[in-house]
Specification:
10 helices, mainly alpha, 4 strands
């Protein structure tokens, strides 16, 4: 890549047309411009291609339409962005979740948060430190408490609590079209996987999404501890998460683990 191309890529990145942390997008940009001299540092992190055998778990083949989540190489994904930029990108992602599911009877704040957690894992956002262990699973309390206010500020959704159970009701506002443009800019690479996730859980009850998110978080903890992955180890993590998790039987947790394996929805 000559000096002009380097300066052009740098300018595009600084102005938001390229996402600096998104290696795949940079590679695709270079490919589209038919550039042969690709700098050696522009490579996919080899850690994302580790075989699951190293974790003593058999990986099952699945169609290309299935979801593949890789989180082991995401530690620097957002390093180049300010806190405000990270927050806004998360707001855009949250807006996409609400836009797709706000009319569903099963959609509420808890389900919203669990889908947000799993969506961020799809995007390889390394934001685990922001999530705490709550009874309903991983929860970013500060974010979920600010998001409705931010939606109103952006003119994307009006948010009210209605009925005896104070259900959150989202009504689209005229500014929502801007959310779509931001989403396309930031999440085009992950859109198919995110849509798959949201459609999969569109009508699911909250506790089903809660279970999958908790299994994912417990599984990830085991990987971070370099522990052997097994059904028993994951089940123990789920039960130790909160006493509330006793509502899930061992069989149901195992069923969840098998489903995650079959759909390639697991930390790596």
């Amino acid at each position: 890549m000559n000096e002009f191309e380097k300066k052009l890529a740098k300018s595009l990145a600084e102005n938001g047309y390229l996402i600096p942390e998104n290696v795949r997008e940079v590679k695709q940009y270079l490919k589209n411009r038919e550039l042969e001299d690709v700098p050696p540092e522009i490579e996919l992190d080899s850690a994302s291609e580790k075989k699951r055998e190293s974790y003593k778990v058999k990986k099952k083949d699945s169609p290309d339409s299935k979801l593949v989540v890789m989180t082991s190489s995401s530690s620097d994904d957002l390093a180049s962005l300010s806190k405000q930029q990270i927050y806004f990108r998360r707001v855009v992602l949250a807006g996409e979740i609400v836009k797709k599911l706000y009319s569903e009877n099963t959609f509420g704040h808890v389900k919203f948060q669990k889908l947000m957690y799993l969506s961020e894992k799809i995007c390889q956002y390394n934001l685990s430190i922001r999530y705490s262990k709550q009874a309903a699973g991983p929860m970013d309390t500060r974010f979920i408490h600010s998001i409705d206010r931010e939606f109103k500020k952006q003119n994307w959704f009006d948010v009210k609590q209605e009925g005896p159970y104070k259900k959150y009701v989202y009504t689209p506002l005229p500014g929502l079209s801007k959310q779509g443009r931001y989403y396309e800019k930031y999440y085009a690479e992950y859109d198919e996987k995110i849509r798959w996730l949201l459609e999969t859980f569109r009508s699911s009850k909250t506790d089903q999404v809660e279970l999958i998110a908790t299994i994912f978080a417990g599984w990830e903890e085991l990987l971070n501890e370099h522990a052997t992955i097994s059904d028993d180890a994951i089940i123990e993590k789920v039960y130790r998460w909160s006493k509330e998790k006793k509502k899930f039987s061992r069989d149901r947790i195992i069923e969840g683990i098998r489903w995650m394996e079959e759909n390639n929805l697991y930390p790596n």
